Amino acid sequence: MSLVRSLFEQAANVVGRQLPYEAVEVCAQQRGKGLTDEVQLAVMKASFPDDKELIRHYAYLSRKKSDHQCVADLKPVQEGHQLPTEQLLVKKPRQIGFTLTGTVVDTIEQRLENGRSQVQVVVFVDRRRITSTLCSVHPDSSWCQHVVKLIFYRMDYP
Length: 158
What we know:
By secondary structure, the chain is α+β, with helices and mostly antiparallel strands. Helix content is about 45%, strand content about 20%.
């Protein structure tokens, strides 16, 4: 693998980081040409966040005692910005455009707590930012452990 990225990869990276995808589509349509699959995939890849520490930090900052997380979960996060995601499994991850969906499987302890073994998660991204999230167990919390697990999974397996 070359240390020097191609001009195509560099351009896709700039577009994915700095331009909303809608603007790219409009520009392509105005020129009378659609975007090729290769271009769309490269821009989508470049649009997804790649900094786990930043995700951990956002999750940490968004946590409140009123969230549907048990107080025991807050302590490890405060001490080392670690999230209780190690015992969660991701199934059926799928990214379509700038929407990532997946099923996160809870451990036995969490199943007993929330009554569900599988949690549906949806994450929306734009310009390397998470713009919104949905979790079937914690609808009022944008950064629950299920959301973070799906984001980390996508970072590890683009």
